[in-house]
């Protein structure tokens, strides 16, 4: 086994699909005839056809993990299916060295009427293992998947999570040189997903991996490089930071306030000091106005800083801060002064909730407010840096 050898080489790979089934069948017959006659016009699009994958080029070496990202319909699964030999490209070439383990579609590669155990043997045989070799692996696979109780049940009766468990366990335990994983892993529960990512990190030492995911933190954590696909083409390629930035620049989450609940209250305005903070900014202010239909007491104002993927990063609650907040009928203006927080380079958004402290009745819940950007010299892996001090304790 050569270290760093190129295991996947993709050259000018393209695949077109037709938007209409009848036309697609007609083109299929025409292509069959022209292929026999030796006239190939693979690089031309006909009426109602489009490129699902267009002119893709990349190489992947042993020890590398490629993150394949892009919005829905960008062509990621189509590319994986070509690499796994499930569909033929219209143009270009794929060269793969070694054994390929793949987890592309839920349940794909399994015979639904056979049991989990029988499917393990089937898949192993397809990958070129003898019965004796599979015998030696089957227990490990069942243990990894944690579905021993159900291993002799037909796969068609498995839940989605159980299919993913078995699929990943088979793909990962069969010593692949190339491991291809589509976002199906997301179906697994949190515990199993964590176990899969741990296994992926281990496997990376001896194989190369292509991982399709919509989770950018996952790309940063696991992948050694990435590709952003857009309408079948490569839009950005290379180190994760730049590619993820390009993914976000595609503006998938619209910068538009979302009102989730509004009872008796509405947001009049919401302002930050600036849209972009450069350097080490630890204090900033949020100014906001809430219009209330009536006087309200025992109010909790809660401001949440969200990541650009809208997951909460940290919050400031008036209840936690033991502040007595009341709203009067009409416009109520507030300022929230944020002290001593270090947000890492990135884009952040806000959510605001207004609740009754005693009954937890929600008067207002708005999110996707005012994106702000922080650009700092020091970039960490989590969004917030703790303040504190490191001292020796020995
Ligand atoms: N068999 C097919 N026939 C026609 N069009 C297809 C076929 N398979 C995929 N497509 C189309 O090709 C395009 C790319 O689809 P693909 O599934 O590769 O996208 P994706 O990037 O994996 O998306 P997602 O993130 O939603 O899984 C889409 O427009 C899809 O509708």
TrEMBL record:
<dbReference type="Pfam" id="PF00005">
    <property type="entry name" value="ABC_tran"/>
</dbReference>
<feature type="domain" description="ABC transporter">
    <location>
        <begin position="27"/>
        <end position="256"/>
    </location>
</feature>
<dbReference type="GO" id="GO:0005524">
    <property type="term" value="F:ATP binding"/>
</dbReference>
<dbReference type="GO" id="GO:0016020">
    <property type="term" value="C:membrane"/>
</dbReference>
<keyword id="KW-0067">ATP-binding</keyword>
<dbReference type="InterPro" id="IPR015860">
    <property type="entry name" value="ABC_transpr_TagH-like"/>
</dbReference>
<keyword id="KW-0813">Transport</keyword>
<dbReference type="InterPro" id="IPR027417">
    <property type="entry name" value="P-loop_NTPase"/>
</dbReference>
<dbReference type="GO" id="GO:0016887">
    <property type="term" value="F:ATP hydrolysis activity"/>
</dbReference>
<dbReference type="InterPro" id="IPR050683">
    <property type="entry name" value="Bact_Polysacc_Export_ATP-bd"/>
</dbReference>
<dbReference type="InterPro" id="IPR017871">
    <property type="entry name" value="ABC_transporter-like_CS"/>
</dbReference>
<dbReference type="InterPro" id="IPR003593">
    <property type="entry name" value="AAA+_ATPase"/>
</dbReference>
<comment type="similarity">
    <text>Belongs to the ABC transporter superfamily.</text>
</comment>
<keyword id="KW-0547">Nucleotide-binding</keyword>
<dbReference type="InterPro" id="IPR003439">
    <property type="entry name" value="ABC_transporter-like_ATP-bd"/>
</dbReference>
<protein>
    <submittedName>
        <fullName>ABC transporter ATP-binding protein</fullName>
    </submittedName>
</protein>
<dbReference type="GO" id="GO:0140359">
    <property type="term" value="F:ABC-type transporter activity"/>
</dbReference>
